[in-house]
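Below is how a single chain appears once it has passed through the pipeline. First comes the sequence as given, then the structure the pipeline wrote out for it. We keep one example in the README because the format questions we get most often are answered faster by looking than by reading.
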Amino acid sequence: MKKIALVLIAALAAAACVTFSPFYKLGAQAELNKQFEEAIAFYEKAAMENPKEPVYRMALERARISASLFHLQEARKLVAQGKRDAAAVEYGKALALNPRDTQTALEARQMTIEPPKEEPKPEKIEFPIKLRGKDAPIQAHFGPESSLRSIFVAVGKSAGINILFDENFRDIPYAPDLSNQTLEGAIKVLCQATKNFFRIIDERTVIIVPDQPLKRTQYEVTAIRTFYLSNINAQDVFAALSQMLRAQYAAPSIIFDKNLNSVTVRGTPPVLEQADKLLRLWDKAKAEVVIDVEIMEVSRTKLRQLGLSFNQNQVGLRYDAGSSATTDASSSWFSLKGLGLGNTSNYSVNLPVAFVQFLETDADTRIIAQPRLRGVSDEKITDKVGQKVPFPQTTFSPFAAGGFSSQPLTSYTQQDIGIEINLTPRVHRERDVSLELEIKVSSIGGKGYADIPIVNNRELKSTVRLKDGETQLIAGLLRDEERKSIKGIPGLKDIPGIGRLFGAEDTTLDQSDVIMTITPYIIRTLQLGPDDTKPIWLDMDTAAPPAGGVLADEEGLRDPEALDAQLSQQRRRAAESATNLVSLSPATLEMRAGSDFRMAVNVRSGQEIGAMSVTVTYNPRFVSLKDVSESGMTRSLAGNAPFLKNIDNGAGVCTIGFTAEPGKGTKGGGVLALLQFEAKSAGEAHISVAVPSAMAGNGSPVSFQTTDARVVVR
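Resulting structure:
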């Protein structure tokens, strides 16, 4: 029975001492040397010996991915050199090692197949009702005495449609040449040249309207469209889209849905087309990278204590004549009776205890980490490997209220010990990768006062730019510290040769080194097509010049006297615009969050104003416009001139204005409207006035200067 028990104990001890397979160690060494094929072979042998060991399977998978990335980089280099056959072989090796990498398979397939067909361009958003006039082109030429109204009517009769006019339409003489023009083209030419626009009522009816902000708001047709986003956050793009689509006289309504990640825009067809183009440019998948990081820290602590040490650093001598000389046992006073200073037996000597030290300790620490991190461009990647170590923290508090802080309270804080890696990659179009590095390596270096752990820390912050597959070596973070202390009898401890018999020497040697390598691999780049770099033209339909024809009053500009008159009129308008002002008051205001405040829109004009439109913009993050109330400036107009207000807190835009009866207007200064705001959150909000649009009673334009206001929310 004893033999059987001994055999079982030996078997259990052998099982407890099982370590990693030598094939695993060889594979790890080959992987460190970038010999991935050999590492895979060794890891496979280790996995076959012990299939249940997860460490072997994970190491094998890691080596296969590393080898796949290596062959992928070789394939890309061969493609750049034009060696497509050799590149196909490397692609095949990469896919054989990592068959689940669909991106590599797609890249290899794109190298051999025909380039993909271009995606169909989005359809242009058009008005649902089309004019159905005669298809024959218009052949008409009008003399200089023709009126604009009669020209529109003549074009409508020739095409078989009805032409209506707004009540504020202004008839002027015009002499166009409409030869070889289609119906819609002729109407566009006439409207562009005379500052009008048209609205299709039905298939046989068109109305001509003056091109004014108030009329645009009244007649323009708007549509609603929802855009579903895939790669960007709808909330992040909301502010930028609102700013880009904002026009001088109006702004589209834009809302976003977090759950569906969608943006819904309400605006005119040109605005929706611009929103579609912008979102197609912005909604791109970010570039993606895989970063291999290898960190190795080797630290060594060596302690040596040699020599003769003493338990105390002092020698004592006292006189002790026995109980007969002592008068008081509780004191140090002696009676002079029987005093014998010459008797050595009356003295006691206190000498230190000496002991010989011959202690030497040697502690080695090695930390090796090989994380493989994957992330997208401009997004932070964080990896922490280690443990949390409790550290005591003592504070003192009073026993009772108003007392002294004398009661100790000990709490523990958890501190991360190990490896912490923070990376922020950025993939450039030149296939370079910029890395913002922040690497922290910490370890327990021993124990200090009250057995509190001593932490060895290494921290690196840097920004590097590497090519695809390029390795950056970071080394030289050395720390070599040596401390030596000698304790002993003064004078005797310094005697050469025998000084150690009268003293002790303590030597502490701390050495550490950190070596890191960083290698980025580009998995996916930002996909840009030829259309992504082209500019987006605004108002393409209204930018074309009128085809033939000039205004009748422009004919007279060829006369020098008429030209001088026009220049004088321009100078007069410039002088008038210097006195015409639209301002906000108060110009500076400081409010608390949650409170309401009012701001007045003041207008000062030296000319009579018959129609006016003012656009006020503000930051909806800090303030919100609750209401706009009409003031005395518009109430003074006879005939109850209509007052317009349009508030869009989502975009931070408000449009206000009025239109008086033909031939009437207001002159001087006054308050156009009162804006009632609510302060939402802390910040600084700028309230601005866009370039106002105004017309005199006779239809001529009026220029204005503007001033802004600033609101600080606390």
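The radius of gyration is 45 Å.

See the next section for the split statistics.
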